[in-house]
Amino acid sequence: MKDRIILGIESSCDETACAIIKNGELIANVISTQIEMHKKYGGVMPEIASRLHLENIGVVIKEAMEKANVQFEDLSAIAVTRGPGLIGALHVGLQAAKTLSLIYNIPLIPVHHLAGHIYANEFVKPLKFPLLAVVVSGGNTELVYMEKHMDFKIIGETKDDAIGESFDKVARVMGLPYPGGVEIDRLAKEGEHTYHLPIPMHDGSLNVSYSGLKTAVINLKHNIEQKGETVDIKNMAKSFQDVAVGLIIDRVQKATKQYKVEQVVLAGGVSANSYLRSEIQRIFKNTAIDVIIPPLWCTTDNAVMIAKVGDYLYDEKVFAHLSLGVDPSWKIENYLKF
Ligand code: KG4
Fold first, then answer.
1. 257-276 per-position pLDDT tens digit
2. How far is the CA of 185 from the centre of ligand 1 (A)?
3. What is the mean pLDDT of residues 97-109?
4. DSSP letter at 199?
5. Ligand 1 touching residue 84 (CB < 6 A)
6. pTM
7. For ligand 1, atom 2, which residue shows the shortest CA distance?
8. Closest CA to 247 of 288, 221, 279
9. 103-119 average pLDDT score
10. SS3 of residue 112 by DSSP
């Protein structure tokens, strides 16, 4: 029987990545990260991201093919991130995928970036339905209810900033380097919750809001400095992280009371946060709800998760036409409608 080989491509933000899964087994995983370049600007510069993707995409694909020791003619399908993400960055990955699809007549599978993060959990153990996916990243904060495979319903979301965005903005105000979430997590471990910050959004819904919290940290810091005092960065990091993570934990607890779920999974960049990881495990310990915490390598952008979703959709024959375009704000609920 012919081998089933899925090539995955990811370029939605600041990682250019390519991975190959052969008969369900990961055989190549190449990532070129742009993080050092964006650090200079304190965040991802979209124009620079697109240019670097363009420079790197060919090299990354070639390296993955060489590592896997496969030829383009051998590929069963090409899975590529179509959105959400930065428009120019997404275009680079999609155009590379479409070019290979056209030349070698290989089916093209459009992958939703956040579905990729959710399905990355299958590298730990199989997803069990119904489940609640806690999607927390630099661009998204969503509670996603899934009754079955590839069936996504948003039951709660941010009304303004994403949780990762608030970590990054607060970190910048505190003079910490990008990506700020990592720094706040590190400093919070050595700090205490001494600063009072308001807990946002008490509307009883499953939604969250992070913009007010960010403003509260900025105002608090200015007030302290105006009094001629210095801010204790570690305590500020801990106080902010407790409130930011506490908010999402509160909504997860509410959601699992309203929706009967078998499993809760974490997904996205902020799922690397050590406090969030331990809190999710703590609240579901000794309950019937199973928890999957993604391995750290799955919390950052990669193409393995894209190939994984592609592998699944290959069976379903979810193939796109070559006229497919990117969708920078693709809603996960509209997945498979393109
Ligand atoms: O998933 P991701 O790469 O972003 C999007 O594709 O949108 O996640 C990046 C985000 C950044 O905001 C970064 O600060 C945050 O994830 N992050 C963390 C941690 N590691 C990364 N936030 C809190 N704690 C961490 N340990």
1. 999 999 999 999 999 999 99
2. 11
3. 98
4. P
5. no
6. 0.94
7. 269
8. 279
9. 97
10. strand
